[in-house]
């Protein structure tokens, strides 16, 4: 009997890729997504990839009654919680929307899981909660600096809420995955990053400029304390990231978790600057990207990249795809698949 895995935000960028990975690993993914930052069209595209229409509920995770009805209709063996607002820049402008949505959805989910004795949770956390860490690369033990954005703060508080709940309820087993910067797209170019409106993230904006959909890329500052003055991030292929979720779930099901709360950095261990992304993209696409240097963006951290030893040795996961592959797949998605 296949295990049922509820994926909140399962029609989103990382969520949709994880649905595919879960199916391929022999799980039965069940999607809950209110499409506040995703498109129903992704259900059709996921269907084309996996060959059947996965169970889908267009509910808001903050709606406790609706969420509970899903747990009453199915045995939920595991939950992967993606549903959250995720733009660093936007969270600085709309902090209350981020605190309300990201924290209310998590608390509601934990309540419903406990009330239905559903015990296994993978939480979508983020490297942005490291803030401007003094030491790079960051490990899971790196002290957290002051959050640089409400988004990062919701992820930090989210982890603390889960830790407290695991302490109070030993039956709950949770793993937080601190993502670095997910980019790229599935090889089919049927699913990929498809932000509603103007992209806040670098790569979708960059590929839209390269495709002639936008005039030029604004680089948010080149006066940072980095080799070329632009911010450094650890970009990770979304397919590698999706695989990490499957392995984290499997770790719990196999009883390998060493405590009922674990935490892993999910990155490549390599940092790339904004300008390096531009030049690497131009090399793989053979397209020049028009850009200009603008002011710094509020909420940005200067540099962050992962120490991946724990994920490699304890979780048994490591990133397989490099920046070139990520950008090639992002470009293919922009040209062939984007909606
Ligand atoms: C990257 C760099 C920008 C747009 C993301 C996700 C967040 C989290 C962490 C998972 C920064 C610069 C951007 C542009 C630019 N992931 N930039 N011009 O802010 O690191 O956050 O990764 O939890 O959910 O949003 O990613 O792509 O917005 O920015 O110069 O038009 O690119 O200033 O230095 P960020 P990003």
Describe the structure.
This protein has 339 residues and is an alpha/beta fold. 40% of the residues lie in helices and 16% in strands. The protein has eleven helices and 13 strands. The strands form four sheets. The chain has a seven-stranded parallel beta sheet with strand order 3-2-1-4-5-6-11, with helices on both faces. A two-stranded parallel sheet has the order 7-10. A two-stranded parallel ribbon has the order 8-13. The mean pLDDT is 95. The site of UDP-4-deoxy-4-formamido-beta-L-arabinopyranose has 21 residues, from helix 7 and strand 8.
Short description:
The protein is 40% helix and 16% strand. By secondary structure, it is of the alpha/beta class.
Coarse shape: globular
Pattern of helices and strands: EHEHEHEHHEHEEHEEEHEEHEHH
Number of DSSP strands? 13
**Going across the major beta sheet, what is the strand order?**
3-2-1-4-5-6-11
Q: Approximately how much helix is present in the residues?
A: 40-55%
Distance between the termini: 35 Å
Task: Report mean pLDDT, rounded to a whole number.
Answer: 95
Regions with pLDDT < 50 over 5+ consecutive residues? Answer: none
Number of alpha- plus pi-helical segments: 11
């Amino acid at each position: 009997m296949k295990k049922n895995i509820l994926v909140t935000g399962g029609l989103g960028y990382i969520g949709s890729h994880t649905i595919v990975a879960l199916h391929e690993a022999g799980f039965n993914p069940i999607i809950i997504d209110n499409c506040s930052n995703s498109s129903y069209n992704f259900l059709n595209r996921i269907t084309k990839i996996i060959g059947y229409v996965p169970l889908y509920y267009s509910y808001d995770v903050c709606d406790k009654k609706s969420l509970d009805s899903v747990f009453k209709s199915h045995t939920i063996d595991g939950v992967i919680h993606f549903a959250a607002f995720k733009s660093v820049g936007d969270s600085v402008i709309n902090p209350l929307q981020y605190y309300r949505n990201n924290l209310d959805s998590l608390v509601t989910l934990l309540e419903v899981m406990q009330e239905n004795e559903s015990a296994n949770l993978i939480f979508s956390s983020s490297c942005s909660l490291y803030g401007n860490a003094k030491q790079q690369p960051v490990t899971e033990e790196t002290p957290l600096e002051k959050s640089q954005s409400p988004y990062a703060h919701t992820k930090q508080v989210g982890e603390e809420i889960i830790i407290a709940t695991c302490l109070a309820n030993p039956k709950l087993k949770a793993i937080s995955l601190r993502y670095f910067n997910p980019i790229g797209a599935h090889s089919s170019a049927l699913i990929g990053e498809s932000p509603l409106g103007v992209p806040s993230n670098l790569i979708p904006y960059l590929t839209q400029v390269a495709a002639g959909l936008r005039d030029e890329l604004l680089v948010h500052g080149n006066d940072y304390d980095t080799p070329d003055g632009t911010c450094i991030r650890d970009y990770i292929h979304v397919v590698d990231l999706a695989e990490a979720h499957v392995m984290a779930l499997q770790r719990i099901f196999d009883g390998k978790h060493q405590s009922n709360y674990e935490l892993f950095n999910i990155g490549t261990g390599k940092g790339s600057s904004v300008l390096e992304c531009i030049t690497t993209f131009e090399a793989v696409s053979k397209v020049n990207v028009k850009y200009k240097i603008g002011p710094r963006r509020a909420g940005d951290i200067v540099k962050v990249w992962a120490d991946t030893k724990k994920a490699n040795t304890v979780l048994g996961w490591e990133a397989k795809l490099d920046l070139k592959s990520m950008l090639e797949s992002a470009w293919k998605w922009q040209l062939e698949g984007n909606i």
